[in-house]
Amino acid sequence: MDPQRPSLTAEGAAALRVWHTLLDDPPHVFDDSIIRSMLSGPTRLMLHAPPSMLRRAIRARETVQPELAALRGQVVLRSRFAEDALDAALAGGCEQVVVLAAGLDTTAQRRPELARAIMEVDHPATQAWKRERLPADLSAAVRFVAVDFERDTLDTRLTEAGLRSDAPMFVNWLGCTYYLEPAAVTATFEALGRIAARGSEIVLDHWLPEPGLNWRPRLLLAGVRFAVALQQEPLRCLMTAEDLAERAAKGGWQVAEKLDAKAQRERWLAGRSDTLALPDFAHLTRLVRA
Ligand SMILES: C[S@@+](CC[C@H](N)C(=O)[O-])C[C@H]1O[C@@H](n2cnc3c(N)ncnc32)[C@H](O)[C@@H]1O
Fold first, then answer.
1. What domains sit in the chain, N to C, each tagged with a CATH number?
2. Which of 61, 146, 170, 228 has the fewest CB atoms within 10 Å of its CB?
3. pLDDT tens-digit profile of 69-98?
4. What CA–CA distance (Å, rounded) separates 195 from 147?
5. Residue from 86, 77, 92 nearest 32 by CA
6. Does 82 sit in the ligand 1 pocket, CB within 6 Å?
């Protein structure tokens, strides 16, 4: 990504989470409407509940072209997955939360009681831009660690920021692996592995490579590839589940849970009355440090 400019895909993902609450039916898979105040003016302008005729038209279009709703679906489903895993980790006594490639993640806003346990890691430009938008009390409570995964040593930076390697950490790493060089993905698993106590976890999403996908998700992926390249955040690392498991194992991480698109649809989309969808290439994984 352009090192001088905040990530555009971070704001795009945040806008899709808001759009889910405006267009899709309750119950919402993940309610992130609190994020609205952090979005830039032009993005906020686009986020108004559509009048009923427009809503019907969008839904009719999404019924025949489900991929139009699929990016919105993958953004909210990955957040739901991470939130449920976070709750389970906290219930198990975990007291350290690391949000990697945080973008406009709102864990600290939605759950201010956790703010002091949270370390947000992001590219320096994106992080500075986010911090300008945060209320001062939250900005002071959360620990911010500016890191470029392609260049910096993540474990050193987290340790300097106070991360304890004698206690488990919960790591949320969403919406990022596909934008990194494959070597940086492996290096991130290795860096986290060097400082992770037993019982630590990473939740992340990854996208499958084109071979093996049918034409609809392939077409969507081609469109996304084009759009994010224009935003100077090109797709660089598409991984099969096996490829991901091998890279994670280099850092000592084992797959504890993996959800392909079918499993996610069964868990979160079955029985919904709206058009929310998910692309076949979107997979979710939870890793543990044994
Ligand atoms: C699509 S956003 C995802 C944000 C958030 N996790 C979410 O789920 O909405 C991608 C994030 O990856 C971060 N990112 C991309 N390349 C990076 C790099 N080389 N080093 C650090 N962060 C990076 C961007 O700054 C941005 O916050």
1. 8-289 (3.40.50.150)
2. 61
3. 999 999 999 999 999 999 999 999 999 999
4. 16
5. 77
6. no
